[in-house]
Amino acid sequence: MSKSTIWVNEQIDPGGLIHACIACQNKDAAENCHQNWQNDLTEEQKQNGWIASLRTVDSWDDVPVNALKLSF
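Below the sequence we write its predicted structure tokens.
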């Protein structure tokens, strides 16, 4: 089985809780989603500590259980 990269987008509140999570294997789609989430954060949210995070993992087992998992 070949190794594949899974892109994980997360919206995280100031307390570290994940409010939204989308995972997929398409880098372009993941980067587009991340940019949209960054753009949608208000200045007030940013000042309060909200972040949009994009990271990679090597296994679906490492994706948060509540993630929307896309098959593209």
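The chain has a mean pLDDT of 91.
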